[in-house]
Write the structure tokens for this entry.
Amino acid sequence: MSKLVVFFSQTGRTKAVAEGIAEELRVPIESITCPQGKARIKPLRSHWQDSDLPVISSRLQNLDAFQEIILGGPVWAFNI
């Protein structure tokens, strides 16, 4: 079964966990990035309320090649 770990990490904590999972499972890992400063809670919330989310980038190309995708992301304002 092919698996992939995909994560977004602003401080590096989620990245460390994602790397540990990928290493333990021996699967590829890819990161999602957001332009500098756009991932902060206050600006992101205002983008969300305006339905104007920041552009994210990733090298992900063909997700159909994987049967399972393990997704890691931050907890903002005590919510996932």
